[in-house]
Automatic annotation (TrEMBL), chain A:
CDD domains: TM_PBP2. Coiled coil: none annotated. PROSITE patterns: ABC_TM1. This is Oligopeptide transport system permease protein. It comes from Kitasatospora atroaurantiaca.
UniProtKB/TrEMBL annotation, chain B:
One of its GO terms (biological process) is peptide transport. This is Oligopeptide transport system substrate-binding protein. The lineage of its organism: Bacteria, Bacillati, Actinomycetota, Actinomycetes, Kitasatosporales. Residues 1-20 form the signal peptide. Residues 90-469 form the Solute-binding protein family domain. GO terms for molecular function: peptide transmembrane transporter activity.
Length: 307, 547
């Protein structure tokens, strides 16, 4: 197990370097950021030159990347054009997004697995059909539509939840955006759980367990659900990274100053430091989530062992 | 590990992050309620966007930073929010005998909110700092009219002087400024934020200043959480006449204009001047009439690359006139913009007023929709160069809709569906890059937001030879000489007349087609009243009253 983890960690290095370099190149392909700083006014050549110098924009791309990466290893992510350090932005943005993702993930796990289990156990019943129709609706509507509609209904019209989350993120203000963020994945989790539960409920070991006279609760939770969870956990692990990246839309709608917002600002203002810094952390989280999933397999199914 | 424990452990791992994080946030919710601020004390909660640059007077060239600077600073002159007429604010008098060397006398006893006194040096030091190229101030070019600018910000290489030779401190409350050319309306330009004074602490502890800027204006910053919110409270030592009518302003940064609008409707926001386009159709009823839509000092135009041979012929000028006449401005402003644009009939803005140089209908037939005449002119001029007109725009801004509408209008007039196409450029930076490096081959969108309400500001930087923002690279010696004459003319009315004479040359040369004047929009909650927009389309915060 230990060697497996080390091997996986080593594999992350080329993935990490490759993806950061790609992002770096892509942001640069967007054009010269200095021109945009001056708005509709033509830049003063003397000033533009000084600013290019300050941000190493006169160097060839590979040298800029090397300079950037060498600073990155000392945890110096550079500054944005308005003088804030990217590390301070990371410190504001990631906790906000992690809170949102955590609430969304909890909702996704509890309701996704819950709905899937109910509908898988009672195939063809009204609850099964209900879940199927509901998930179909959720999957087919884009997130931003769900977001604006729920915001208008619950936030503006009925005043049940705050319309936007703002600076102080309270659980109260996060529920609405979390539901929106979780909704699509939740639907997939429910359907995935339903299918595997339905398949496994006819399996021999379930019949054996029932024949042994075990209470139904134990049969379902300890035998049926546990074996059915493997594909679900795979999906959830990959989804954790996707949720953080996909929070962009939800964060904009509900005014949450998280990763999505700063990443968006960074792209609009062509701030290489911000974009690459944020994406770097996202990549690390994504890689870690994937590793966690692979390790969880062993916990769920003792037959899977890592040498 | 028994089977049951193992499953439980798996579930716990999967959700533990969630529980920890939500635990944190729920305990915090009891501490500081987000929606409970405001209310008593007469605080105005207002929409804000994250400033793009550090909050230094000469380094701020966009509206979000500018809004704050105008609250915490009062310059030598100030503009009336309704008429945009300049009048002395911190200046007691600004006089000159030759329109070139100006003597500025300050009203004595003004203070910065850190307690220090505003002196002539506060201005001279601030201007020297703003002009010096190594300080990388985006507004550095505003000091180009002052003598010695060439030395502190040479076009290439390092500066040969650290201070502007044209600025001299006479005594605590007096300084003189010598300009490189006669400029009769120069005093009226000094209300722009680049000309604000700076306290000594700006130079002694720059980092601390940037965290909490200090000014001499009606408000002071009491707290600022970067990229999320700022609290401004009235500055008790303020000497100006425009003292705040409210207990302060809380600016809230929004990720999206739609989110701000939702908050405005839900009663969590009082003043919203970032109304999204999507809300404009319903805003009158949504807000019960608490909405204002007035022209701002912004004009939108389509410019042509006159540096391209095919666009510099006499025939091409006729083609440009034809294109201008093929654009149905009233319909586009109504359908695409919900009346938040006003069809343009000159190259300035209605906020200047007739006395300030705005002249309705100056452009005449050329800016009036006439499909038949348009087609005739374009054909007479030899047709559109290259057979097809492209209008470039940056795709990261809200431009596609109107560019398509303009092209449709031209195509209909020409009776040819491929006469005109929009050409999106990925980002604003790339778009500006193509313009400044003269890479444009067809028409492109341009816009101009005035720096100060003067006709000079709408003509000189945009259309004189080699001017800083002359994107079409238009050059007409007659135009230049009329502008110079107007600048040298001490009589304001006569000067405005000469500027308009110059402007009339644009009708035939047409380096840029006027499209429309942009309006400023603002909506407000039932908690506040007396909300209006200044000519720069920024709310006049100090006049807002809270019920």
């Amino acid at each position: 197990m230990g060697r497996y983890v080390i091997r996986r960690l080593l594999q992350m290095i080329p993935v990490f370097i490759g993806s950061t370099f790609l992002i770096f190149v892509m942001v640069h392909a967007l054009g010269d950021p200095v021109n945009a700083l001056f708005g509709d006014r033509a830049p003063d050549p003397a000033i533009a030159e000084q600013i290019r110098e300050q941000y190493n924009l006169n160097d060839p791309l590979w040298l800029q990347y090397l300079k950037y990466m060498s600073k990155l290893f000392t945890w110096d992510f550079g500054n944005t054009f308005n003088g804030q350090s990217v590390t301070s932005l990371l410190a504001i943005a990631y906790p906000a997004t992690i809170k949102l993702t955590a609430v969304a993930f909890t909702i996704e796990v509890i309701f996704g697995v819950g709905f899937g289990l109910i509908s898988g156990l009672r195939r063809g019943g009204w609850s099964d059909n209900g879940v199927l129709i509901l998930t179909l609706v959720v999957i087919s509507i884009p997130t931003f539509v769900t977001g604006y509609v729920l915001q208008y209904l619950f936030g503006v019209k009925w005043d049940i939840f705050p319309a936007t989350a703002g600076e102080d993120l309270t659980l109260d203000s996060l529920i609405l955006p979390a539901i929106v963020l979780a909704s699509v994945s939740l639907a997939y989790v429910a359907r995935l759980t339903r299918t595997t539960v339905a398949e496994n409920s006819k399996a021999d070991y379930v019949r054996t367990a029932t024949a042994k006279g075990l209470p139904r609760r134990r049969v379902v939770v300890n035998h049926l659900l546990r074996n059915s969870l493997i594909p679900v956990v795979t999906f959830l692990g990959a989804d954790l990274g996707a949720l953080m990246g996909g929070a962009l839309v939800t964060e904009r709608i509900f005014n949450i100053h998280g990763v999505g917002y700063y990443l968006y600002q960074g792209i609009v203002r062509q701030n290489t430091n911000t974009v690459v810094g944020f994406v770097t952390i996202l990549i690390i989280i994504y890689l870690a989530a994937n590793l966690l999933v692979d390790l969880l397999y062993a916990v769920l199914d003792p037959r899977i062992r890592y040498a | 590990m028994p089977a049951a424990t193992r499953v439980r452990w798996a579930v716990i791992v999967a959700t533990s992050v969630a529980l920890v994080a939500t635990g944190c946030s729920s305990s915090k919710s009891s501490g500081g309620g987000g929606s409970a601020s405001g209310g008593g004390g007469g605080i105005v909660r207002a929409w804000w966007g994250d400033p793009q640059n550090p909050l230094e007077p000469a380094n701020t060239n966009e509206v979000n930073g500018g809004a704050v600077l105008n609250m915490i600073f009062t310059g030598l002159v100030a503009y009336d929010p309704k008429t945009s007429k300049p009048s002395n604010a911190n200046a007691d008098s600004i006089t000159s005998t030759d329109q070139q060397t100006w003597t500025v006398k300050l009203k004595p006893g003004w203070k910065f909110s850190d307690g220090t006194t505003v002196t002539a040096s506060s201005y001279v030091n601030a201007w020297n700092y703003g002009a010096l190229s190594t300080n990388k101030q985006l507004g550095s070019s505003f000091f180009r009219y002052i003598q010695g600018f060439d030395q502190v910000a040479p076009a290439s290489g390092n500066p040969t002087a650290q201070t502007l030779s044209g600025l001299k401190v006479v005594d605590d409350n007096t300084f003189t400024a010598t300009l490189t050319q006669k400029f009769s309306t120069w005093p009226a330009t000094l209300g722009y934020s680049a000309y604000f004074p700076l306290p000594a602490s700006f130079f002694s502890d720059h980092a601390a200043y940037l965290n909490k800027p200090v000014g001499n204006g009606p408000y002071e910053i009491t707290s600022w959480t970067k990229s999320s919110s700022m609290q401004l409270r009235p500055f008790s030592g303020y000497s100006g006449t425009d003292k705040p009518a409210n207990g302060g302003v809380d600016l809230k940064v929004y990720t999206d204009t739609n989110a701000a609008y939702a908050d405005l409707q839900a009663g969590n926001l009082d003043v919203d001047n970032g109304i999204p386009n999507s809300a404009l159709k319903t805003i009158e009823t949504d807000l019960n009439g608490r909405f204002l839509n007035t022209p701002a000092g912004i004009i939108q135009t389509i410019s042509f690359p006159l540096y391209q041979p095919q666009w510099s012929t006499p025939g091409a000028a006729m083609v440009r006139q034809g294109i201008s006449m093929a654009i149905d401005r009233p319909t586009i402003t109504k359908v695409v913009f919900n009346q938040t644009r006003t069809p343009a009939t000159d190259w300035t803005s209605p906020v200047l007023g007739a006395a300030g140089g705005y002249k309705e209908g100056l452009c005449g037939d050329v800016c009036t929709f006439n499909a038949a005449k348009a087609k005739q002119l374009i054909e007479q001029g030899g047709g559109i160069p290259g057979g097809q007109l492209t209008i470039s725009y940056n795709a990261d801004g809200p431009h596609k809709e109107w560019v398509d509408a303009v092209c449709n209008s031209i195509n209909n007039a020409m009776g040819n569906t491929s006469s005109c196409v929009g050409r999106p450029v990925g980002t604003f930076a790339d778009f500006r890059n193509q313009i400044t490096t003269k890479q444009m081959t067809g028409a492109f969108r341009t816009g101009w937001q005035m720096d100060y309400p003067l006709i000079q500001n709408f003509l000189q930087p945009l259309y004189t030879t080699n001017a800083s923002s002359n994107d079409s690279h238009y050059s007409n010696p007659q135009f230049d000489s009329l502008v110079n004459q107007a600048n040298a003319n001490p009589d304001e009315t006569a000067a405005v007349g000469q500027f308009q004479d110059a402007e009339k040359l644009l009708i035939t040369d047409l380096p840029a087609i006027p499209l429309w004047y942009q309006n400023g929009t603002v909506g407000w909650s039932s908690k506040v009243s007396n909300v209006l927009l200044n000519p720069f389309s920024v709310p006049v915060y100090n006049q807002i009253t809270v019920k």
